Fold this protein.
Amino acid sequence: MGDNQPNANAELTRVIESARRLGIEMDEADALQWLTAMAAAHAGGDVVVDTRTGVFGHKVTMLDFSPAQLAHYREIGRLVEFADVPGVVETALALSGSAAQSKIQSYPGDCDYFERVNILADTREQACAILARIIREKALSAIKGATYQLLEVKFGSYPFEIVKNGRAIKKGAPISWTPDEIRAGQIDGFRPDGATVTLRWDEVAANPGWCKLDWVVADPARGQLANASNMLDVTWEARDGAITPLDGYLDPYFQEVYLDAASVPVFSKLAQHVSANALDDYVGQLQNEIKKYLAQDHLNYGKVAKRMYNIFRLTGRYQEAAFVRELFDEPATLLYQVWSLIQTIDDVSAPDSSISRDNLLAQADQLILAVIKTLEGDQEAEIVKRLLQLRDRLARQEIGQALDAQVEAARAQVINIVNNFFYEKLIALPTIKAYIEALQG
């Protein structure tokens, strides 16, 4: 902070006063310590290794990571990660999203992972074929277990417009594969003119596009469910050492905490090829996402707050970042997790689910208690009523007793409360209000 320390302190004081007026307690000493650490993080190299835990990542990201749940995240990581194949496939697995900000997000949402997958092959065609094989093998080997269930895999892009399950999908859209479709190795649908069409796994391999795998995992000891995903950033390394991203873009590393120091060499090799404009591109991408979540049809101020925090901490707007990071520790933000998990429970509550009834009931009980703890009055009564209906269905597991309408109604009520909380707090700080208005304008 240097010569700007007095001004920074004065600005921090204003932010703390604003927070307190809104009922948010900010510890001035802790906030100042974080601001100082943030400023220092921009000096010298931008990647650090924690030799005690064996994790590494961007300096700014590492400031928000707590190793308290590291063993838990590494255990789930063993489910979602891809194995190295000597001389063919090399990987580096990382936490991303709220899981990588566990020091400040007391109520993290999903268990999001990010994995760099570098494939060594003579040609791009061979690299794509290897990728198609290892993704399918991974999915088939981890479709269902006592504590996990695969939901979908995104692999490839539709080469033409298709109607699938009554829904029209545009050409170029990512392909979402269900477990049954992965087993079959094909997707059946219709052309817009009504002609039947079959799209096979190997046929889309040449343009893998956005690659992502999604599971639901259960933690019986904690009585919790979690959405676990692994987003892949796949590169092809030719025999001359040239690196080519298979989706056309090498992702930056501003939001990942890598779980194994042994993957430093492959990370370092790939990081050299990240664009010099990566930070600007990353910020621009986050701003576009904020615009999306400010739109009425996708309104989600919780997602807006998370993305603004990442922008502020990476672009030197530390006072605003210090304010937003405090919001993540407020009890109302627990409802963000509730919103996500209501649908998760419904997704895996079918009678043939591999997730046990006891795990589903335990998670439902936790959600009910969380709502009771956080809310009061009519809001609490209505949401608890709907969650009890969901729990009753889980307890009976009766086929044909779907509560889709009640589930969506409960989710809509919860996200409305979350939206109101974040909206009221964010716009109360003039600089953040102006930032939101600029993006909306």
